Amino acid sequence: LPSFVRDFTNRNVDEQVVLQEKLAKISGILNQNHGDTTPLKAHPGLQYENYTQHKGLAHFRTSRGMRISCSAGKHGLTLRRYGREPEVNANP
């Protein structure tokens, strides 16, 4: 989504690299499990969880204090927002 692209481009290069590494890890997990997000929930470094107040949306950790909000569909995850945990959780 454009909001994710905007959030990504507004981050410094180090944060962008960490994010790309995390997305590669998530992509591998999803590929191995045919798109099932359940293994993401079991991964301690990702802390993948569904939002309780926003039906159909989830979030995961990229690094300490940084989160990505997303929605899961039959074609994978749609990335919505990327940023500091309070910012992303307030407006996923």
H/E topology pattern: HHHEEEEH
- Report on the biggest sheet: 4 strands, antiparallel
Low-confidence stretches: none
Helix content: 40-55%
Q: How many distinct helices?
A: 4
- Count of DSSP strands: 4
> Which oligomerization state do the chains in this entry correspond to?
single chain
* Content of β-strand: 25-35%
| Outline type | globular
Structural class determined from secondary elements = alpha+beta
Q: Could you give the distance between the termini?
A: 12 Å
Kindly report the spatial arrangement of strands forming the biggest sheet.
1-2-3-4
Radius of gyration: 12 Å
Mean pLDDT: 91
Structure description:
- With 92 residues, this protein is α+β, with helices and mostly antiparallel strands.
- It has a 4-stranded antiparallel sheet.
- Strand 1 and strand 2 form a beta hairpin.
- The protein starts with a helix and ends with a helix.
Q: Which key phrases capture this entry?
A:
single chain, four-stranded antiparallel beta sheet, 92 residues, 4 helices, 4 strands
Describe the structure concisely:
The chain is of the alpha+beta class. It is 42% helix and 27% strand. It contains four helices and four strands, in the order H-H-H-E-E-E-E-H.
